[in-house]
Design brief:
2 domains, disordered N terminus, two-stranded antiparallel ribbon, 8 strands, 6-stranded mixed sheet
């Protein structure tokens, strides 16, 4: 028995397939089987047209029998492909080679019964040769199939010319020797030129794919290493920043009566900066946890309005300090949803925090919950600095901050919206933004859910519209 490794030179135990996985090869084998059904339909149509319209003097009955055999074989191929999939690369490639070999034999009979080399469709051999060059790694097997096609055509042509088999002349007379040899020579040239070009192209393609795969792996490892270093650094920074913030709070509370007003003001500003840095560190930790899949979504059943209200309450003091009117617009009817509570809390908190940070004093921020039959979500609108149209596609990228945002808040990581997008994506939702510079922004998050009793026309429902400080008094 031939060692299959000899058919695939320079291969390790795992074949370097021209596709990403063995499953991809299996899918292409299925495509090959489906393509054969199209060929069978075309063959039956050609037989009907040739017999009824053109009255060709060829073996129509034998062609029908050959087509039936091809159909039965294709049914067997389909059954094996669909219900008995191969798990080994060699078996999958062997299955493809068996199909190509059988096709060579059946095509030979089809060409013979329909006129031999006088029928230009003998170039159908080339389809199998091309598929062989694409499917099989290494240089040997594609050339073996090309030689097989050439030898089969030559043998049939010589048998027909010397009348060693029945002849079915397409044009009603035998093909002259000179025409037969020219046709065979043309086929040989095209056959071997094609397999040479295809095989060299596929070899270079596989080499290029190997390089790309290696570089992708290096890039993935580099990103993982960066995220780990990023997360480690953030954790190391978090402790001293927390200590500084606590120390400032203690100094402010214990010595507020003994400290000069200008020094007290410096302490308050330092405390505020500490809060900003601490928030940045928390964002860095959160985004790396999601990038490293360290934080898995845990679904919980919650009252969505209550969840949003809790997050708003945490930001209430900041809104009051800036004199911002914070509206919470809730549906009249409460509803429960099963969501990743921790993740969605981060989304709400981040978007609300951004709205408050980038809205000037005495501005307005509105939060509105909506509920549809197949989804739910919320929107946050503000009268802040807004986002330019050219920045709308970039704000969700890592570390990106607009010029206006940097001018208003010097400290920031540019990671918050990137984290928001990742969490929303992991929960199967979408986030959109509508904004104009100087007029504010509206961020809308929509998450999948099913409510049989929900009114899909959101505008027709009644809402309670009240100020936050009344809501939490």
């Amino acid at each position: 028995m031939i060692n299959p490794r000899l058919m695939f030179p320079k291969m390790n135990s795992a074949i370097k397939l021209p596709f990403h996985t063995v499953e991809d090869l299996r899918l292409r084998t299925g495509w090959y089987i489906n393509l054969r059904w199209i060929a069978i339909f075309g063959l039956l149509s050609s037989i009907a047209i040739g017999e009824t319209m053109f009255k060709f003097p060829i073996a129509f009955n034998e062609l029908i029998v050959t087509t039936i055999i091809l159909s039965v074989l294709n049914l067997v191929y389909f059954f094996l492909w669909r219900f008995l999939p191969f798990t080994s690369e060699y078996k999958e490639l062997g299955f493809a080679e068996v199909q190509i070999f059988n096709d060579f034999i059946l095509i030979s009979f089809i060409i013979h019964y329909s006129g031999g080399v006088a029928n230009p469709f003998y170039f159908l051999y080339m389809v199998q040769v091309i598929l062989s060059g694409i499917l099989f790694p290494g240089a040997i097997l594609p050339y073996v199939n090309a030689v097989l096609a050439a030898v089969v055509l030559l043998i049939w042509s010589l048998l027909e010319y010397f009348n060693l088999v029945d002849v079915y002349p397409l044009l009603g007379k035998p093909v002259p020797f000179e025409i037969m040899m020219i046709s065979i020579a043309a086929f040989f040239i095209i056959n071997f030129s094609s397999i040479y070009i295809i095989n060299n192209f596929m070899i270079r393609y596989r080499q290029l794919k190997k390089i790309i795969d290696e570089k992708n792996l290096e890039l993935e490892n580099a990103i993982d290493d960066r995220n780990k270093a990023f997360r480690f650094s953030a954790h190391e920074i978090k402790a001293p920043i927390t200590a500084i913030k606590s120390t400032l709070e203690v100094v402010k509370d214990l010595y507020k009566d003994d400290i000069k007003p200008e020094i007290f003001d410096l302490i308050v500003r330092a405390e505020r900066r500490s809060d900003q840095v601490l928030r940045m560190v928390k964002e860095m930790i959160a985004i790396t946890q999601y990038n490293l899949s360290a934080e898995k979504p845990v679904l919980e059943k919650v009252d969505f309005g209550e969840l949003l209200s809790q997050v708003v309450k945490q930001q209430q003091s900041y809104a009051l300090a800036k004199g911002i009117k914070l509206f919470v617009i809730l549906p009249e009817t409460e509803f429960e949803v099963e969501i990743d509570k921790a993740g969605i809390e981060k989304v709400i908190d981040n978007l609300l925090s951004n709205a408050l940070r980038y809205t000037p004093d005495a501005g307005i921020v509105k939060m509105k919950i909506f509920k549809k039959r197949l989804s739910f979500g919320f929107s946050i609108s503000d009268t802040g600095i807004g986002i330019a149209a050219k920045d709308l596609d970039l704000i969700f990228e890592e570390f990106y901050r607009t010029k206006e945002a940097k001018q208003m808040e010097q400290i920031g990581t540019g990671l918050g919206l990137n984290l928001v997008r990742e969490i929303v994506r992991k929960n199967g939702g979408t986030i959109t933004v509508d904004s104009e510079v100087g007029k504010g922004s509206t961020f809308t998050v929509e998450l999948p859910a099913k409510f049989e009793d929900a009114d899909t026309d959101d505008e027709k429902r009644e809402y309670k519209n009240i100020y936050t400080h009344y809501l939490f008094e």
